[in-house]
Amino acid sequence: MTHAQPISMETTPRPMADPVRGTHQSGMRAYNERLVLSLIRRHGSLPKAEIARLTGLSAQTVSVIVRQLESDGLLLKERPQRGKVGQPLVPFSLNPEGAYFIGIKIGRRSGDLVLLDLAGRLRTKLHQPYAYPTPDDVISFIEGSIERLTGDLSEDQRRHISGLGIGVPFELWNWEDAVGAPREVMTAWQGIDLERRIETICPWPVHFCNDATAACAGELVFGGGSRYRDYVYFFVSYFIGGGIVLAGTLVPGPTGNAGALGSLPVPHSQGGSQQLIHSASLYVLERAMRTDGRDPALLWKSPEDWGDVGAPLERWIESAAASIACAIAASASVIDFPVAIIDGAFPPAVRNRLVERVNEKMNDVDLRGLSPISIIAGTVGSDARALGAASLPLLANFAIDRNVLFKDAA
Predict the structure, then answer these.
(1) 140-165 residue pLDDT tens
(2) C-alpha angle with apex 208: 126 to 33, nearest 5 degrees?
(3) Residue 66: which H helix or E strand, with range?
(4) Which of 157, 236, 253, 293 could cysteine-pair with 153, CB 3.0–4.6 Å?
């Protein structure tokens, strides 16, 4: 198995390769090619002159790098842009067909597979709701879906698939009472070598990380999170989780479980405290809907459109917002986060209402001694975990500053 490498989204100009990467020519070229690809990803397109200015590389070196990347099918030459004086500038952009990446999210109520291209565009998506995940059913779903996901690709396109990333909950077998699955089904996950099972059905390198960490990666790579250097990230799904970004880099921690925000203690409505997971997770809404005589299956069948959930949703938003506000304050007291981002596996309208209510609930939290915190909505939504999983092979192969930070979570 290949462990995913987290990549800093900062593209600070560097005049030459990092010494730890070696000084031989091939090592320098590999780093500089990644640097150019990362800059173009950040800006959308860039002419060679601007690449040279941002990197500090000579114009001749940039020309050699760009020519090689274009020859490799990773860059496309766009139409010249004429300025007021001088020769027209020719921007270069990422070639969507240059590489493909598969992302898999294994959740407690549904599974998702996505196919992305090098430009980060979603090419295909498959969604499968289920009552609860069993090892055999999940493996069968993945095996069949990979074939469906890549079925429309040509042989040449299939050769450009760079890897497969998987986002899976940390200790999937835990909280069986909340999941509502038979004990033997959930404990069966403890004896499954998931990485080996998937490697037997997958011809590409496989990358693993925690599903909430993957969601944070999705926001960082494909969403508005790339605009901020430091933030705490909350992702609301069956269980709420999250991630931490510092200096533009995702920080999963030594065991891959940093940002386990669902475990934060928050006040209980009846006194004492409870974990955030028990007040701000969608399983709480699911139970409330059942109590109200409503079918909660719509929460997992169509995360983008719930229709009219009614009073249970309003009560859930009120309770979840109060708890998340406390969790944000607790997080900011440990690390001076200037921004908190909230996203989840729910419709954008629900996300926006939750963010608005969290901002209001912050007025009830004692924030003395803390710097101001901006609380904003995430921009990726319910696909964040699958897209973040797909970003793992993308970052490992085509970005800069590789460090071993992602850890196994299965």
Answers:
(1) 888 888 889 898 899 999 999 999 99
(2) 95
(3) helix 59-71
(4) 157
* Surface-to-core class of residue 349, CB atoms within 10 Å of its CB (0-12 exposed, 13-18 middle, 19+ buried): exposed
Q: What is the pTM of this model?
A: 0.83
Asked if the model's pLDDT at residue 15 lies above 70, the reply is: no
Q: Do 234 and 354 touch, CB atoms closer than 8 A?
A: no
Torsion angle of alpha carbons 54, 58, 59, 63, nearest 10°? Answer: -100
Question: Quick one: DSSP state of residue 146?
Answer: H
Query: How large is the C-alpha radius of gyration of the chain?
Result: 22
3-class secondary structure, 116: strand
pLDDT category at 189 given cuts 50, 70, 90 is confident
Domains, the chain, ranges and CATH? 19-97 (1.10.10.10), 98-215+385-398 (3.30.420.40), 224-379 (3.30.420.40)
Neighbouring C-beta atoms of residue 24, cutoff 10 Å: 10
Residue with tokens 């399983």, as numbered in its chain: 283
List of residues 6+ apart from 244 with CB closer than 8 A? 216, 232, 233, 250, 251, 253, 258, 259, 335
